[in-house]
Amino acid sequence: MAGPAAFFDLDRTLLRRSSALALAPAFRAAGLISRRQLAKAAAWQLLFMARGASHAAVRRAAEDGLLVLRGFTPGELQELVAGSLERVLRPLVYAESLDLVERHRRRGEPVYIVSATLQEIVQAIADDLGFDGALGTVCEVVDGRYTGRATRALHAENKAACLRDLDHDLEGSTAYSDSHTDLPFLEAVGHPVVVNPDRRLRRIAAERRWPVLEFRGRAA
């Protein structure tokens, strides 16, 4: 078994908003989504900002997002994300999250991003920020093109299962998240930490005496 590691949720934990929704205008410009779908993405952003998304709502939004990719190639998506990193995604990174990453690195602990966001998006951000690994939702590819169906959907308990598959010392590991929908993910490690938590997770953290961090700073 490998030693402890640190696992970071992506949206609202490493980044100040949803990465997939931040990319929606780029998807629109590339012809991937319609004006109506872009408006729907904006509505979802308002819902996430209000912290009102349930397990079912998050899963439904993720499934809708995968359907948008049908017929698109992984290479085309990777190119779109790479072109948006510096302008769209990097300005969303919390400075405090990168400080934590560096702290874990000094302890010799590998750092991972674990997110329900599409694997290609998670991987690009992880590579850009120097993480050791990235775990995201995987969309099925047939004949070189996305089908719009997930072969690995990282929601709720599935996120915790992915941690166990990595074979790290989870009792000594740390996980960071903002949402009550990530409770199984936080419970999978010995050191759960909540970041900018929604109301329900803040209450759970108080009951269990978990550390609560408030991130505000923007990474340089």
Highlighted features:
seven-stranded mixed sheet; single chain; globular; alpha/beta
Largest sheet: 7 strands, mixed
Give the helix proportion (percent range). Answer: 40-55%
Shape: globular
Please mark out the parts with pLDDT under 50 across 5 or more consecutive residues, or reply none: 42-50
The sequence of SSEs as H and E is: EHHHHHHEHEEHEHEHE
Helical run tally: 10
Going across the biggest sheet, name each strand in turn. 4-3-2-1-5-6-7
Secondary-structure-derived class: alpha/beta
> What percentage of amino acids are in beta strands?
15-25%
Q: N- to C-terminal separation?
A: 36 Å
How many runs of DSSP E, i.e. beta strands?
7
Please, what is the average pLDDT?
Answer: 85
Rg over alpha carbons: 17 Å
Give a description of the structure:
With 220 residues, the chain is of the alpha/beta class. Helix content is 47%, strand content 18%. The chain has helices at 19-22, 24-29, 35-49, 55-68, 74-89, 95-106, 119-129, 157-166, 183-187, 199-208, and strands spanning 6-8, 111-118, 133-142, 145-152, 174-177, 191-195, 212-213. The longest helix is centred in the middle third of the chain and has 16 residues, at 74-89. The N and C termini lie far apart (36 Å).
